[in-house]
Amino acid sequence: MKRFVKLILALFITLSCIVAPLASTAKAATNDQSSTKEATESLAAVKKRGKLVVGVSADYPPYEFTAKVGGKTEYVGMDIEIAKQVAKDMRVKLEIKNMDFDSLLVALETHKIDATISGINPTPERRKNVDFTDLYYSGKQVILINKRTASEYKNAASFDGKKVGAQTGSLLYDLVKKQMPKAQVKGLAKLNNLVIALKSNKVDGVAMDYPTAKAYAENNPDLTTMDPHFIVDKDQTGYAMAFAKGADSLVASANKTIAKIKQKDLITSEYIPQASKYMTQSTKENKMVDYWTYFAKGVEYTLIITIVSVFFGAILGTLLAIMRLAHNKVIHYLAVAYIEFVRGTPLMVQVMFVYFGIGAVIQSMPALVAGIIATSLNSAAYVAEIIRSGIDSIPVGQTEAARSLGMSQAKAYRYVILPQALKNIWPALGNEFITLIKESSIVSVIGVADLMYQTQLVQSATYKGVAPLFVTMLIYFVLTFTLSKVLNHVERKMNHA
Predict the structure, then answer these.
(1) Degrees, nearest 5: CA angle 258-263-264
(2) How many domains does the chain contain in total?
(3) Interatomic CA distance for residues 346 and 352, integer angstroms
(4) Which of 174-182's residues contact partners 24+ apart within 8 Å by CB, and which partners?
(5) What's the pLDDT tens digit per position in 293-320?
(6) 63 — phi, psi (to 5°)?
């Protein structure tokens, strides 16, 4: 019982050391954010930095999606064109950050981005946390369905007892939940994954904006749309650009641009036709071989994350294992607290906490660095337990013999214990490295361009769901199979040494 109390106390101390600085910084940031001074200087700050960072969820044609332009991957769509014009009028460069839709407002509140434009409805709930511009476009809400079942669905009541998909955090998710109470709501972060679910009969319909639904229907002959006649408040039917709370000068500047765009009717005369052109082009060039550069870039980032995380994870894991075996109770319980806490929380939560939580303190932290830090810290906890078990497997007599020869505790571990333990734990350690390659895919949720992130881009660019996933599965298999063979070769060398 006493040992359990010490463990809880150590865990509390560890968490306090992490949370306390973040809480004080977050409070200070909130106070600064609400001040008039920051609100009047926000536009000046963007101009001084020379760039406007805008977050999008590039799986929402014709609003924002990816296309190959001149052999390069670019973000295109009507929202992207509006963002370009807003940045141009501010006389700064535009930087696009692509991430999951339900992470956009969090990124905005934690100052990872300056603004977001991604078909966002300015609902009263959202207005409490962020500031919106004037509406730049109003669309109709429909449900995408399989054409073979079109005769079954005439209105919203037709979906009673059926599964209806909607993008998590969107207005449509709330509409389905409230106005179709007898339907089962299936929420996912990416629309292309919902379309995959529809085509594979996992859901019976997907609620989305009409232009987006039309884009998917035109590029998938087995899909069509139906009107469920959603009842939507007038001020929630349109889309607006969002800025951090109190950024009045940025909102005012963007409103001038939006007013100019609406006056010239640029959205219907230029932006939507241009988006349709890119969509048609993507449909003609949607062979997987045409997107090999996407997958190659994804492999590059995946290997960078894995190699760096393995390096730092192994070092920190070894240190934690030695700390856990230490006779000093404080050091021992701190190591135990860290290991148990990290192993008891999901990696995805840790990734988002490092990027949005610690990243609120270190605002210049890139998503790639945050992803590497999170995966390194997570891997260290598992490596520590593997190494500890290896050290425990070495007979105590080995340590006693080394000490009797005059070796210090450190030298005994370095020259006698760890080399023998490494042979015992190599298979488990290798398995952790292989697992890390696959788990690194989680960093895609914060916009790191790893293999899974690139797969999602290919899905949205080609309107195909299963084919890009199959290619990705093969790539992951090649990576893990190759690594397993290398590890087996090293193991054989160690056993014959």
Answers:
(1) 100
(2) 3
(3) 10
(4) 174/123, 175/141, 175/207, 175/230, 175/232, 176/207, 179/228, 179/230, 179/231, 180/156, 180/228, 182/157
(5) 889 999 999 999 999 999 999 999 989 9
(6) -75, -55
For residues 320 and 313, give the distance between their C-alpha atoms in angstroms, rounded to a whole number: 10
- 422 and 469 housed in the same domain: yes
Instruction: Determine the straight-line distance between the first and last CA of the chain, rounded to whole angstroms.
Output: 45
Distance CA 324, CA 392 (A): 11
Q: What does the alpha-carbon distance between residue 77 and residue 437 come to, in Å, rounded to a whole number? A: 33
Q: Which domain holds residue 90?
A: 39-137+238-284
CA dist 273 and 286 (Å) reads 20
CATH number, domain at 394?
Answer: 1.10.3720.10
Last residue of a domain, one of 234, 257, 275: 234
Residue 470 CB neighbour total at 10 angstroms: 12
Distance CA 402, CA 411 (A): 8
- For the record, the structure tokens of 255 come out as 């409103």
Distance between CA atoms of residues 402 and 397, nearest Å: 8
Judge if 352 and 392 occupy the same domain. Answer: yes
**DSSP for residue 353:** I
Length of the chain: 497
344 in the same domain as 485 = yes
Q: Show the low-confidence residues of the chain (pLDDT under 50).
A: 1-2, 4-5, 7-9, 11-12, 15-16, 18-41
62 within some domain: yes
Which CATH number covers residue 163? 3.40.190.10
How far apart CA 325 and CA 388 sit, in angstroms, is 7
